Amino acid sequence: MWASSFPFADLQLFPVAASKQATQIDQLYWFITAVSAVMTLLIFACLLAFAWKYRRRVQVESTQIEGSTKLELTWSILPFLVMLIMFAWGAQLFFAAQNPPKDAMEIFVTGKQWMWKVQYPNGGSEINALHVPVNQAVKLTMASEDVIHSFSIPVFRVRHDVMPGHYNSLWFTPTKPGHYHLFCTEYCGMEHSGMVGWVDVLNDRDYANWLAGGGTGTAGSLVEQGRSIFMQNGCSTCHLQDQQGRCPVLRGLYNKPVQLADGRTVIADDAYIRESILEPNAKIAAGFQPNIMPVYKGQLTEANVIQLIAYIRSLSPNEPASQQGDQQRPVVIAPTDANSSNSGTSR
Ligand code: HEC
Ligand SMILES: [Cu+2]
């Protein structure tokens, strides 16, 4: 950094804005900063001016001022309106951040002391690396294998805590191809500082090449991986017979309402299916007995559960995966089909 002509040329006060939301969030950030700066200057200017004007002098009788309603209303209502602008603007960005677009590509991320494991729908996986195409909305569904982590990509201005026992998600639309840092921003133990990685935003051609290169070493699509875990763990012995018996039929389950034994109705989304696998007795499907399905907590990793969910989703081929992005059009898989022998058969 000291080698360049201008000593601070490489000192980055601000990460580049490499996503659609980064630009929007920066605009709000600068608006709030500018308002704060103006207000600070105004207050200090008045303070100094009045301190000077009303300084202690000999033989000056000060007059008693009773106050001015007009003035007080003005300096209360104007800042209030400015604050409301900040609130409305911020709330709008916040809501947008909670609602990934329907056509978002879905990628799965598992935090684990001390690394990020990334799983793609085509079955590929990477450690501490994420490859995404430019100008495509991407939704990350994130789980933690152990403690609270926090997934952060500063250039995209996105960050979300990743809580054990839950799915958390965030989304972004990268706009600038490049090689950027990703971090864990929640102190999560000894080697927390090493829990860093890289995001590569690739243009369409580089992305197709990356996929074709099978860079992530695919062993069947996520659905296929899920299917074999389903077989290996004995799920199939109970669940695959399409008969109405001791076990619910999983075909057509995904994203459908499920009647529970206690009368409630829940939607069979990712979180429900995850819980049904790891802690089957937490919610019992109506008409079935508790304590029949084995508890898989501790038997399966979060990565395995993500594979199982992909498989269970694939059993509902006509269900548009409502808040989960469109599974019917797995953008990730498409470009590989032509020239790759290990492409998925998940469609
Ligand atoms: C011994 C039989 C048995 C095995 C093995 C089994 N399950 Fe189950 N499963 C059940 C029963 C019984 C229920 C209904 C009671 C309940 O909701 O927990 C159930 C419920 C479920 C549900 C919720 C379904 C609904 O309609 O709400 C899912 C999802 C599920 N199992 C997935 C799996 C997966 C994945 C595996 C393998 C990792 C598996 N099960 C292994 C018996 C089994
Ligand atoms: Cu961490």
Give a concise summary.
With 347 residues, the chain is of the alpha+beta class.
Task: Characterise the protein shown here.
The protein has 347 residues and is of the alpha+beta class. It has a domain at 222-336: Orthogonal Bundle (Cytochrome Bc1 Complex, Chain D, domain 2). Helix content is 32%, strand content 18%. The chain contains 7 helices and 12 strands. It has a 5-stranded mixed β-sheet with strand order 3-2-1-5-8, covered by helices on one side. Strands 4-10-9-6-7 form a 5-stranded mixed β-sheet. A two-stranded antiparallel ribbon has the order 11-12. The chain is elongated. The protein starts with 19 loop residues before the first helix and ends in a 33-residue tail after the last helix. Mean pLDDT is 85; it is low at 320-347. The structure holds heme C and copper (II) ion. Copper (II) ion binds at residues 111, 149, 184, 186, 188, 192, 195.
